[in-house]
Amino acid sequence: MWKSFVFLCVVFMVLPAYAEKHKHLFFKSDEAFSDYVARAEMYLQAHKVWVNPDNQIHELAAVMPFELLPDASRCDGDQKVGVLLSHGLSDSPFSMRDPARALQDTCYHVRVILLSGHGTESSSLLSVSREDWRETFYNAANQFKNEVDFLYVGGFSTGGALAAEYAWKNPNQLSGVLLFSPVFKVNSSIDWLSPWLTLVMDWLDNEPSDDFAKYASIPVPAIAEVYKLAKEVRGFILENSKSLPVFIAMSDEDQTVDSSVTLEVFEQGMVGSTSQVALYSQDQNKVSSDRVKVYNSHWPESNILGLSHMAVHGDPNNPYYGAFGEYRICGWYLSDKALYDACRTDESNWFGERSKALFEKSPHAARVSWNPEFASLMQEMVTFMRSNTLPN
Fold it and tell me: How far apart are CA 40 and CA 5, in angstroms?
């Protein structure tokens, strides 16, 4: 008994200090987006752990929330259409930069938020909750919808779940939803264990990151929060099917989220006749339907075997994560420096999502971080939006 008492005393002494260290940034319900961005800059300057202290300007820009306005010289200003986007777990607003710019180029007003616990150091995720993420997303969306004539919400992975939930709770105030590899279930048969694991451990691994745009490791409590969020959103949508227009882009080979569950949620809960899925798959037996279009994701001429979780919405021309970008995703080999270095430097390397077939192509294959068909995907998404920009 006394040991338990001592343990609880230690916990209650440590937690306040820990919470003080990891204060979180939220989008306040009554602030302008420009004020939120200004606060974010001050917060990140004070809390971010720099990969390269000599590159702070570049690293700060990558993790900052941002806003892109349509070009007034060539865009019709009579109709204001806004798009709110959110990144996923362990990522930053940088992961939304490519689709955001594509949307700006087609005359949409885009805002990208920073979820609590992100953009600083991975240990910040130890004290964050899904309610924290909801607060920022909901406040940003509620404010944005008062500034535009039509609003779309969307996001990547965890951000996609947040967007879908907001949309299902506010269907009459939106024109549609844009989802990139949304998480409605983590791709693991033991994901249900994550809330229990939080009772005995904080990390499965804890590696330092050399990627200034995302964390290398995710603490168990944050994984548990995503598990709970995905379960809640999945259940809510399946129990409340709606015809709100939804566009989903995802990979059949995704090793982070369960794409089969996403399709189930789409078919049973997202029942609008104009809703669409762009599914990238190596499975030649999968066929397109009226609402699900299947695209081949094996490009041997580019040494690509399938699209990863993060690649679906990545522009090949991205200077950081693109086909010829400065950073290559090789985190699979962090425990083996020789393999890691070979992965980062081999000019004839193969790329894809983690699989036995990929490693048969190369023993040091990299995770693909771009979509060779990004431009056509963006065209398809914009066509969807233009056909659905109507009051609901």
Answer: 39
